[in-house]
Amino acid sequence: MSKLILIIGSNGQVGQELKQILSTYANVISVARPTVDFAQPDTISSVIREKQPKIIINVAAYTAVDKAESEPELAKAINATAPQILAQEAKKQQAFLIHISTDYVFDGNNCRPYQEEDQTNPLSIYGQTKLTGEEGIRETYNHHLILRTAWVYGTFGKSNFVKTMLRLGGEREEIRVVADQIGSPTWAKDIAETIAKLIPQLNSEIAGTYHYTNSGVASWYDFAVAIFEEAQQLGFPLKIQRVIPITTPEYPTPAHRPSYSVLACAKIAEILGNHPPHWRQRLRKMLQELLVSS
To answer: What CA–CA distance (Å, rounded) separates 184 from 152?
Structure first.
């Protein structure tokens, strides 16, 4: 693969997986802060004009969901303004733009998995800014692929739900976890591998918005229980004895979260030729990798 691929946000969970996967067979340049700072739009334009990539993968975002409620302008700059600038620069270079978005663009009132064309209605600043970022890309440049995903965790990065549960489970005998928010836990490596599979197929016909998560559904409580069950079988040092299910009102947060944010993935499965693997299976695989790397 001779086309130059630029990964923006390469220090994140998905970005680091992408770097590892793509660099084995593609011409890849990966950048992160401070080289590209989405709070400083000029840095976006300058790096794209300098590198002249043919494929741009944006996995950078402001993802501190609760903190965004008190930093709306920063969240807007990174999640809303910067992606549109990316699209403008991609258009000038005639580069294909892949952009990661989120299930938080929905309000959670559905009783079936969300389709790509379903009505959006974000409940939080984070969700609102991510939706504005999507809209900016669509208005600016047709040669894009927006990939919405959810409940992302991985071996890279300091903080995600799996790593937090492992840390708390090693310190405490009892943990309370919300049981009335439903979604699909998704391994960052699977997102990266999906993007890698899509790259050879990129053209005007594939452009658009897609959903990708691991298959199956769970509450945060279900997810936590599974983490501890799998981790104990693998020999992680844990003190945890009880996981207690609680309601969202019992664990108030600054940002409102969708109570149901399962994404329908049939559209992307048709392109990939297979359905995403089940979240529990991939959780086990991630924990095995984490154990080896720790």
So the answer is: 9
47-188-139 Cα angle (round to 5): 50
Distance CA 82, CA 129 (A): 11
Residues 6+ apart with CB under 8 A from 273: none
- Whether the CA torsion 182, 270, 154, 228 is positive or negative: it is positive
**Per-residue tokens: 56:** 């741009």
Q: Which residues of 142-167 are buried (b: 16+ CB within 10 A; e: fewer)?
A: ebbbbbbbbbbbbbbbeebbbbebbe
State the Rg of the chain over Cα. 19
Span 155-192, pLDDT tens digits: 997 789 999 999 999 999 999 999 999 999 999 999 99
Residue 52: count of CB within 10 angstroms of its CB: 12
Q: What angle do CA 47, 69, 39 make, to 5 degrees?
A: 15
Domain boundaries, the chain: 4-157+186-215+261-277
Q: How far apart are CA 86 and CA 135, in angstroms?
A: 13
67: three-class secondary structure by DSSP: helix
Q: Which CATH class is domain 4-157+186-215+261-277?
A: alpha beta
CA distance 46 to 89: 9
126 in active site: yes
Return the half-sphere exposure (C-beta side, CA atoms, 13 A cut-off) of residue 113.
Answer: 21
Active-site entry in 62, 104, 114, 126: 126
What is the model's pTM? 0.94
Residue-wise pLDDT for 138-152, tens only, equals 999 999 999 999 999
